[in-house]
Specification:
heterodimer; A: alpha/beta; B: alpha/beta; Rossmann fold
């Protein structure tokens, strides 16, 4: 048993739902107890889908367990086939139905339906959402993909990976489709987003595959390579460098020259990164956590395209842990592989980054610690489905990333002005275009809290005696001096000073200690 | 859509008790939450209780999806996720549970009451949480009391989770001693609503009033013969039954929604304790007038409009009664997950003859009926709301009717506005 307060990924049948909901002409009959229908709201509320997911739940109750849940399942299959008239049925079980071992696949196949039935077995007590999505796509493709009669002469590819409830999948797909079309390559089938089972049957007519999200499309791409000899791209085109690598990879697979396609008049991000205002971004300490694909891509962008320093990175994608660990070596950090957000919080608190890139959970961790944050990964929040076009992939994706990572930070010129006028009373508290007082939580604590006080003791300056072996105590003058430091670095200055004082065995922090620490601990 | 065979395996029309009104009973896909969802408001209500679901990743995912941002505020709930090792017998599930609980309690020393909450998987593998609770209670006494109940979807629908939770507390309630409360208000209410009711009861001369559940685990009210219980929520069948076993007598009343419902609810308690009608009128006149004024603001938008309620929290019948009698809305169908004839007798007598009642659900067939009727407003769960909006139907999320303070005089206007807002918004938008 694992104590879990919050989970990055849902159970594997949610992954299957993401595939089924993305597709057309497919209906998923899920053997599941009453209550599992909560999953519909992920799609209708978080993604604001206008249709219910194409899922029929058996919603069995205790009284059904005594009777015949297998009959209930078959009835649900019959009704779903009749009502929705899909091209194919997907059948499976959620965690509870897995325990009652009704064998949805066997039951559905025994019914003599005049439509194909694909069974997915998703071990709910071992695996998670992305694995479930990958397995489901693989099973569907295995069932429907055929060796083509002939491959059309015009170079085409399939795009594999985009699903419902994916981080910017809709916009990434549009961006990459445009990029490929611009290279003279037509898109044969996109799967699963928008594909019907009949479309999956045509997968073999493409010359190669473009794999957008390896977590989801990996097993399918490997299968199509082995079965139909279709090679697949490996590079995920997130960031300028990766987009160019991707174009080169595509060009090679298509047998064309990449050269003319490596530039885009609309790629503003590289110039913005080189512009003088971006100088202040140099060496900003960034912490990255999310799914493997986005984390690996984000680390490369952070270091190579924005000049940040990656101080820590990690992922909840255990299946891709090796790739993340490998990538982390490039930045001289060790990857944190965990699905416990408390581990992530501890690491962020310890590393004190100046920017966190993560999922909605990291957004909250960062908010708590007073660190700016930008979103790069699922799990999905309603804010991660912007109304505007906001891809992560391709040249426009690089532009979007530049904006969304840099805007949470203090603007360069603004930062310099604040330094110059920091004594000015109007600038004393949170004078920023950000509006919110991003005061670090620790820094906002009264000094008194740093001293372990007996319960009920009245705390005032008089009792602020250094406790032997306890944390160092600030003198009033040092505290005042600290107040002159701009708010957005004050928390860091406080922490660095305290750390320095502790290491040197200094019990009372004076102005002297503050500047000693600045000289020795500061980056 | 007519003529499509539905998945209903048991559609029957039944008459309710003395009320001859037919009820359509359906069995099919139920688009409802399970009882675990009750944790979302119960953990806010009992401020030193912790809810540990013993379940699967699905349970954890459900609760975080339903709780939304609440999950980030040091939640007092968590899931002990059963994994392959527990199922294969490689790990003793009870040892594992003890380990998880001791880790939890060491991290949260503020916890005084721990609920082990059963789920579908824990029920199916027959993990005996009541025995585990006894064992853990002995180990951790007196610092922490451990209780158990089931919030599983196979046994409970949404608000029945609160019923199961409160039912598990009933045996813990002290026996009535001298000076104990005479009136026990049963069902979780928002603190602000509870305070208003306490003030009103005080002005009415009823000082010995207790609310259940209490805000602190240690403040469980006493119960015994002589206790009069007044249900504040319509979904507490089992809790009420257990309280009756302990001697409490239920005061029959409608539920405190709207001016009329609140008045009847208070009046029923007052009648029980012999409060004079002069005093009742004197105390309630001003708040009643306030409630009527507040409700009147929304009435022009809603008067004569038709409404369809999908089953969700068992509040549907009292809500339907309120919108019909105080806002002039025309009821088409009221669905409820479970219809408790006894507790809802007063409410049912206030419903117009024309409304169709349904119990249980076959969501596809119910959607067919809803689309046929094209009501001006549809009250439904989050899974259905946006798809129906996209089909051109105005909807009100039912979950908001449970999570918002809606009971009592000073919330009556807010409750009316919750129904009016979707229509007001539609009228405003020009996109």
């Amino acid at each position: 048993m694992q104590l879990t307060l919050w989970t990055y990924e849902g159970p594997p049948h949610i992954g299957a739902m993401r595939v089924a909901t993305a597709m057309e002409g497919l209906h998923y009959v899920l053997h599941a107890p009453q209550g599992d229908t909560y999953a519909d709201l992920l799609f209708t509320m978080i993604e604001r889908r206008q249709k219910r997911p194409p899922v029929t739940y058996t919603t069995f109750q205790a009284r059904d367990l005594g009777a015949d849940t297998a009959d209930l399942f078959k009835q649900s299959v019959r009704d779903a086939a009749e009502r929705f008239k899909p091209q194919a049925l997907l059948v499976g079980a959620s965690c509870t139905a897995e325990l009652i071992q009704d064998d949805p696949g066997g039951l559905a196949r025994s019914m003599g339906l005049d439509l194909p039935v694909v069974a997915v077995e998703l071990p709910a007590y071992q695996k998670k959402e992305n694995w479930g999505a990958a397995e489901t796509l693989y099973r569907l493709v295995r069932e429907f993909a055929r060796r083509p009669e002939h491959v059309p002469a015009r170079t085409s590819c399939n795009i594999l990976g985009p699903t419902a409830l994916g981080f910017r999948h809709r916009d990434d797909l549009r961006e990459i489709t445009g990029l490929l079309t611009g290279m003279g390559i037509s898109v044969n089938v996109v799967a699963p987003l928008g594909a019907s089972p009949a479309d999956l049957a045509r997968l073999g007519e493409a010359h190669f595959n473009v794999m957008l999200y390896p977590e989801i499309a990996g097993p399918t791409a490997a299968f199509l390579d082995k079965q139909l000899g279709q090679k697949s791209t490996r590079t995920v085109p997130i960031g300028m460098g990766a987009t160019c690598d991707f174009i080169a990879e595509v060009a090679e697979l298509a047998g064309i020259d990449a050269g003319p396609h490596l530039d885009s008049a609309h790629a503003h991000a590289p110039w913005y990164a080189r512009s003088v205002d971006s100088n202040y971004l140099t060496g900003k300490r960034v912490y990255i956590f999310g799914d493997a694909t986005h984390v690996i891509a984000a680390a490369r962008i952070a270091q190579d395209e924005l000049g940040f320093t990656v101080v820590g990175m990690g992922s909840y994608s255990r299946e891709q842990a090796r790739d993340v660990r490998e990538a982390a070596k490039r930045y001289g950090v060790e990857a944190l592989i965990t699905d416990d957000y408390l581990d992530v919080e501890d690491q962020v608190a310890a590393l004190q980054p100046e920017l966190v890139l993560g999922s909605q959970m990291e957004r909250h961790i960062a908010k708590r610690l007073g660190v700016p944050c930008a979103m790069i990964s699922a799990p999905m929040h309603v804010q991660d489905f912007p109304a505007r076009y906001a891809p992560q992939m391709g040249f426009e994706g690089a532009n979007v990333i530049f904006d969304s990572w840099v805007h949470p930070l203090m603007m360069g010129l603004e930062e310099h002005l604040l330094q110059m006028f920091r004594e000015d009373s109007e600038f004393s508290e949170a004078p920023s275009h950000l509006g919110h007082a991003a005061a670090p939580v620790r820094a906002a604590e009264p000094v008194a809290e740093l001293v372990a006080a007996p319960e009920g003791a009245v705390l005032d300056v008089a009792v602020l005696e250094a406790v032997p072996g306890g944390p160092p105590v600030w003198t009033a003058e040092a505290e005042k001096e600290l107040g002159k430091i701009p708010f957005f670095v004050r928390g860091k200055a406080r922490r660095n000073t305290e750390k320095y004082a502790s290491e040197c065995g200094i019990a009372r922090i004076s102005i002297e200690t503050l500047y000693e620490a600045k000289a020795k601990v500061g980056r | 859509m007519d003529g499509l065979p539905g998945r209903t395996v048991d559609t029957s029309i039944d008459a309710i008790g003395c009320d001859a009104r037919p009820v359509l009973r359906e069995r099919g896909q139920r688009e409802v939450f399970c009882g675990l969802t009750g944790i979302v408001w119960l953990h806010r209500k009992i401020q030193d209780a912790f809810f540990l679901v013993v379940g699967s990743r699905t349970c954890a995912h459900l609760i975080q999806s339903a709780a939304g941002v609440m999950i980030f505020a040091e939640p007092r709930f968590a899931t002990a996720i059963i994994d392959e090792r527990d199922l294969a017998g490689l790990a003793d599930a009870n040892d594992e549970l003890d380990r998880v609980v001791s880790r939890l309690i060491s991290r949260r020393p503020d916890i005084k009451l721990l609920f082990l909450v059963g789920s579908c998987p824990s029920e199916v593998i027959k993990l005996d949480l009541s025995r585990a609770a006894l064992r853990l209670s002995r180990q951790m006494a007196p610092a922490v009391r451990v209780l158990s109940y089931s919030g599983s979807g196979i046994e409970t629908t949404f608000t029945q989770g609160e019923d199961a939770c409160l039912a598990s507390l009933v045996p813990e309630m002290p026996v009535v001693a001298d000076g104990a409360a005479d009136l026990l208000v049963v069902g979780a209410l928002a603190d602000v609503v509870e305070d208003q009711f306490r003030r009103l009861f005080g002005e009415l001369g009823l000082d010995r009033v207790a609310f259940f559940p209490p805000r602190k685990a240690g403040d469980l009210p006493a119960v015994g013969p002589g206790t009069r219980m007044l249900l504040a929520q319509p979904f507490l069948a089992e809790t009420a039954r257990l309280l009756e076993e302990r001697g409490a007598v239920r005061v029959a009343a409608p539920f405190p929604l709207g001016e009329e419902g609140t008045t009847a609810w208070l009046r029923a308690a007052c009648a029980e304790f012999g409060v004079s009608s002069a005093r009742f009128e004197a105390v309630t006149a001003a708040p009643r007038e306030r409630a009527r004024t507040a409700i009147a603001r929304s009435r022009p938008v809603l008067d004569g409009k038709s409404i369809f309620l999908f089953p969700d929290s068992q509040l549907e019948i009292p809500l339907g009664r309120f919108v019909s009698r105080e806002l002039g809305m025309r009821l088409t169908e009221i669905g409820t997950p479970y219809l408790h004839r006894g507790h809802l007798a007063e409410e049912l007598s206030w419903l117009p003859e024309s409304v169709a009642l349904s119990e249980g659900q076959d969501v596809e067939r119910q959607l067919d009926r809803c689309r046929d009727m094209r009501p001006d407003l549809t009250v439904c769960g989050l899974g259905l709301a946006n798809p129906l909006e996209a089909e051109g139907l105005a909807t009100k999320w039912s979950i908001e009717l449970l999570f918002s303070p809606i009971q009592g005089y000073d919330q009556a206007g807010d409750l009316a506005e919750l129904f009016a807002r979707p229509l007001v918004r539609r009228a405003k938008l020009r996109v």
